[in-house]
């Protein structure tokens, strides 16, 4: 069953459920009707018996007259006869089953209550009767009223036949709605299955739009989020592979060519020390590039994991990073005007982000580097270097994007990724006499 199409499973399940409900109705209906019929028969017998007794009391001077008036009920469904205390009939009785007469005598002698309900089987049919003790002309009589269940039995059989026809019609007409419902539920799932197969084949196609608010719509929304993220990840990886191959090729080529020249006794820089120094610088450049690539990959994994943030002083982190990097260009003027700035986040990630961002300021600065905080939610780093060219506007933080005199490269990409993980805004802009980078924190991510 589980290996059959979902539409068939849903349709079969609905049909089986409907059938099970109808079978349960067939099983319970006779029991319910039997209890109802028995209760109604006894109620009818007692009602007719009360009426017959009242009419019989009109002939109090003649018990036989009372018997005859009561026996007039023979014309009705309920029939009645009288017994004396000894169990003898008041008058000859007509058409009274002998089994009923003997059973009534026995129960009348044993009955202590004013009225009692009984039933017996006579030749395969049920007979209900009520025994009631009454007093007429200072004499004790027993009134026995009885009724066959033939009418109600026939009525119940007719109802069951009608129920069978109605149930068959309900089952027949429910097949088409069940088929429609099964297909309407399975159709979007089949579409989603094909869409996911396309994603598995890296065929991103058009966005998935499914106008539903139920669980299937929620599943479609989750698949669309996955598709969008995988698409962006795939584009990012392709771009990275293209640029990494280009960026790694240059230092590797230089290192290899210099090493081969030295092996051949040729020193491209004039002497061995100068040539080895170039190899060392290119190795350092290659090491930094690989380190940044690995760190970007780490940030991608961190984005999918639970965040472990804590509150720390970002101004102190910036100050510590400044003390480490200012030796690169000690001739620059470093203007640091910072007030306490507390941030909720990953301190190690922000340390790396500040290192890359400050390294960028030092690289392009001509005479000075500016660092300041503005209020409890803004960190600004700037330099008095050349302005950002118009052609790189909006691409300052793209991986391997070239900037004036060098590359923005992976450093600013790492800064952007860390800011994104902490829901902070990163902006680069030209100002009078230089460039500045602004990091804006949301109020929930910073504390004054």
Structure description:
This is Sensor histidine kinase. Keywords: Kinase, Transferase. The protein has 448 residues and is of the alpha+beta class. It has three domains: 6-155, Beta-Lactamase (2-Layer Sandwich), CATH 3.30.450.210; 215-304, Signal transduction histidine kinase, dimerisation/phosphotransfer (DHp) domain (Helix Hairpins, Orthogonal Bundle), CATH 1.10.287.130; 310-447, 2-Layer Sandwich (Heat Shock Protein 90), CATH 3.30.565. The chain has helices spanning 6-56, 63-71, 98-110, 150-200, 215-263, 272-304, 314-325, 347-364, 409-421, and strands at residues 79-84, 115-122, 125-136, 139-148, 310-313, 333-337, 342-345, 368-373, 378-383, 402-403, 406-407, 425-431, 434-440, 446-447. The strands form four sheets. It has a five-stranded mixed β-sheet. Strands 1-4-3-2 form a four-stranded antiparallel β-sheet, sandwiched between helices. The protein has a three-stranded antiparallel β-sheet with strand order 5-7-14. A hairpin with a 2-residue loop joins strand 2 and strand 3. Helix 1 runs antiparallel to helix 2, helix 5 (215-263) runs antiparallel to helix 6 (272-304) and helix 7 (314-325) packs across helix 8 (347-364).
């Amino acid at each position: 069953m589980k290996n059959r199409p979902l539409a068939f499973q849903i349709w079969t399940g609905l049909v089986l459920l409907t059938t099970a409900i109808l079978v349960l109705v067939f099983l319970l209906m006779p029991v319910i009707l039997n209890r109802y019929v028995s209760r109604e028969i006894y109620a009818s017998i007692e009602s007719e018996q009360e009426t017959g007794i009242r009419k019989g009391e009109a002939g109090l001077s003649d018990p036989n007259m009372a018997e005859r008036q009561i026996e007039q009920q023979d014309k009705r469904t309920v029939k009645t006869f009288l017994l004396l205390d000894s169990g003898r009939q008041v008058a000859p009785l007509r058409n009274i089953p002998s089994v009923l007469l003997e059973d009534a005598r026995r129960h009348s002698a044993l009955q202590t209550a004013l009225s009692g309900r009984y039933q017996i089987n006579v030749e395969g049919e049920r007979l209900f009767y009520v025994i009631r003790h009454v007093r007429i002309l200072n004499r004790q009589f027993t009134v026995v009223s009885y009724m066959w269940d033939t009418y109600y039995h026939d009525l119940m059989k007719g109802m069951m036949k009608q129920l069978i026809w109605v149930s068959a019609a309900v089952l027949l007409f429910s097949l088409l709605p069940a088929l429609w419902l099964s297909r309407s539920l399975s159709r979007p799932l089949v579409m989603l299955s094909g869409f996911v197969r396309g994603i598995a084949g890296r065929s991103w196609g058009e966005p998935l739009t499914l106008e539903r608010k139920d669980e299937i719509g929620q599943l479609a929304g989750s698949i669309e989020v996955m598709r969008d993220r995988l698409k962006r990840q795939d584009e990012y990886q392709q771009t990275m592979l293209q640029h990494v191959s280009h960026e790694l090729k240059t230092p590797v080529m230089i290192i290899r060519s210099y090493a081969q020249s030295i092996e051949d006794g040729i020193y491209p820089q004039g002497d061995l020390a100068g040539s080895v120094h170039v190899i060392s610088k290119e190795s350092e450049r290659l090491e930094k590039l690989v380190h940044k690539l690995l760190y970007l990959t780490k940030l991608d994994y961190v984005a999918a994991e639970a965040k472990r943030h804590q509150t720390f002083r970002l101004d102190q982190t910036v100050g510590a990073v400044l003390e480490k990097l200012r030796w690169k260009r000690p001739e620059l003027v470093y203007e640091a005007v910072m007030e306490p700035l507390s941030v909720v986040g990953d301190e190690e990630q922000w340390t790396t982000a500040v290192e890359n961002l400050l390294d960028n300021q030092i690289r392009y600065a001509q005479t000075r580097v500016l660092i300041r905080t503005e209020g409890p939610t803004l960190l600004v780093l700037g330099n008095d270097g050349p302005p950002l060219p118009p052609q790189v506007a909006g691409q300052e933080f793209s991986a391997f994007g070239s900037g004036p005199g060098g590359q923005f490269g992976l450093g600013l990409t790492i800064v952007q990724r860390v800011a994104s993980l902490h829901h902070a805004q990163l902006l680069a802009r030209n100002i009078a006499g230089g460039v500045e980078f602004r990091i804006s924190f949301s109020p929930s991510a910073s504390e004054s």
